[in-house]
UniProtKB/TrEMBL annotation:
Protein name: Major facilitator superfamily (MFS) profile domain-containing protein
Keyword presence, Transmembrane: yes
Positions of the Major facilitator superfamily (MFS) profile domain: 58-505
Keywords, alphabetical: Membrane, Transmembrane, Transmembrane helix, Transport
Span list, region Disordered: 1-36
Topology term for the membrane: Multi-pass membrane protein
Length: 505
């Protein structure tokens, strides 16, 4: 059994080389092989073309959707510095409450959304929620007071709750573990681009102040809301279903996708029906909760940064609000590049924990500079390192959790819990940057620094060593008793609890 376990490690650590799939394909039973009789070279060529087709069909549109999602939830930070608070007669605490209420509904409903995604199909569920939040965004542009803004922000959080965990789960059902991280990083880099693009867009739209009798901040919400609504309509044709139902694939290509997932020991290739046992399996899995702690550190920091970076930069020196919007662009652009680079490195090395630890150190240095540097230039440099330490960890943590959770529904529930708990920390993040703490914002920077040190870095270290210890036990055969007396089908149903399932570190 020890030698079998070593073979499992070799299989689990294969890189995303199409030839790897061809070499392992003959070990998979129960899945029709449309390429039977072809040489390894011919199989590899077909696999490369298939992967390219998946990337072109899935990633661009889904990335656009997340760009729009992140833009719509954070543009309130841009609106703040062009008169939102003043026009609606809001105090600093009331403004922070409008940020907080979004995260309440967003977090509460996230764990449920992946089950709905599976039941309703992505091509129906995702366009519907986009249309709903597009309407909410447009209504934010016509609110007259604090109460109206609070109500719309609640429904915005409810509408957006299904996208990020849904797409993370959806993509994990298409790609092998060694391919998923960089795709998730490309998808999430849209969040960093949203911060960059959002600053430019807000700077341009703010010049419409007075047009139609509406303030510039109002036009930010109205125009972006209408754009979101139209993108939601288009999504009925641009969002696809799971591999066994995707209409853009030929019947043979569907078989190839399912077979390559089976080669990767993924039950995403199976037609799994929902059972409450999958929910409880996720709740009882320690990896769900360590993953939630790690994601908490990344997500709590993310929302604090993205919601308040225009305000932080605006307070560095006496910049105009337009200049502050523009200066917020470069840190996001650098973060987007590093997010994709880390995704690629983590896929190739399968060392997601070490990648998390590495980028978290960048973030810790960045927020230490924001706390300690006296010069505006030094603190502005800190925003670069802060962004570089936060954004790559989000996508990498989701990929890490997905790689180590097997079973279609169990993975969906686990990602919902992990992401929901992480987003719940937006309640904290939206209340730590207060006007009375300007221009240094010591409490806000200190809380983000604590999130990075304790939860992102510390949590990643703990999970890394726990996974390493569990892999060692499986290689030694200490878990072999789990499958005694079980047939092959029963063993497959164990998912990531199978003794031959080796975790990604």
């Amino acid at each position: 059994m020890v030698s079998d376990q070593k073979l499992a490690i070799d299989n689990a650590t294969q890189l995303s080389d199409p030839e790897d799939a061809t070499k392992s394909s003959d070990r998979v039973t129960g899945f029709e092989d449309p390429d039977a009789g072809l040489s390894d070279e011919e199989r590899a060529q077909i696999d490369r073309k298939l992967l390219w087709k998946l990337d072109l069909r899935l990633l661009p549109w889904l990335s656009l959707l997340y760009l729009v999602s992140f833009l719509d939830r954070t543009n309130i930070g841009n609106a703040k510095i062009v008169g939102l608070k003043k026009d609606l007669n809001m105090t600093s605490n009331q403004f922070n409450a409008t940020l907080t209420i979004f995260f309440v509904s967003y977090s509460v409903f996230e764990p449920l959304t992946n089950v709905l995604l599976k039941r309703l199909r992505p091509s129906v569920f995702i366009p519907i929620i986009i249309i709903c939040w597009g309407i909410c965004m447009t209504l934010m542009g016509i609110v007259k007071n604090y109460s109206g803004l609070m109500a719309v922000r609640w429904f915005l959080g409810l509408s957006e709750a299904g996208l990020f965990p849904g797409v993370g789960y959806f993509l994990s059902c298409w790609y092998k573990r060694s391919e998923f991280g960089v795709r998730m990083a490309i998808f999430f880099s849209a969040a960093a681009l949203a911060g960059s693009f959002g600053g430019l867009l807000a700077a341009a739209i703010a010049n419409m102040d007075g047009v139609g009798g509406k303030a510039g901040w109002s036009w930010i919400f109205i125009l972006e809301g209408i754009a979101t609504f139209l993108i939601g309509i288009a999504s009925f044709w641009c969002v696809y279903d799971f591999p066994d139902q995707a209409k853009f694939l030929s019947p043979d290509d569907r078989k190839r996708v399912l077979r390559r997932l089976a080669c990767d020991q993924q039950s995403s290739a199976e037609h799994e029906e929902f059972k409450m046992s999958y929910f409880w399996a996720s709740v009882k899995d320690w990896k769900t909760w360590t993953g939630a702690v790690v994601y908490m550190g990344a997500d709590g920091s993310l929302y604090a940064f993205s919601l308040f970076v225009p305000t932080i930069i605006n307070e560095l020196v006496s910049y105009s609000s337009i200049h502050a919007q523009l200066l917020s662009v470069p840190p996001y652009a650098v973060a987007a590049i590093l997010t994709v680079a880390v995704g690629f490195i983590a896929d190739r090395t399968r060392q997601r924990g070490l990648c998390n630890i590495g980028v978290s150190i960048l973030g810790i240095i960045g927020f230490s500079m924001l706390l300690g540097c006296e010069s505006a230039g030094g603190r502005y440099a800190g925003t670069f390192l802060g962004a570089m330490g936060i954004y790559p960890a989000i996508a990498n943590t989701i990929a890490w959790a997905s790689n180590n959770t097997e079973g279609v529904y169990k993975r969906g529930v686990s990602l919902g819990i992990i992401i929901g708990w992480g987003n719940l920390n937006g309640i904290v993040s939206s209340n730590i940057y207060r006007d009375q703490d300007a221009p240094r914002f010591y409490p806000g920077h200190g809380v983000v620094l604590a999130y990075l040190v304790l939860f992102l870095c510390g949590g990643s270290i703990v999970q890394y060593f726990l996974l390493r210890r569990e892999n060692s036990k499986r290689v030694r055969g200490d878990r072999d008793q789990w499958i005694e007396g079980l047939d092959q089908n029963q063993i497959e149903l164990l998912g990531d609890e199978r003794p031959d399932f080796i975790y990604t570190l």
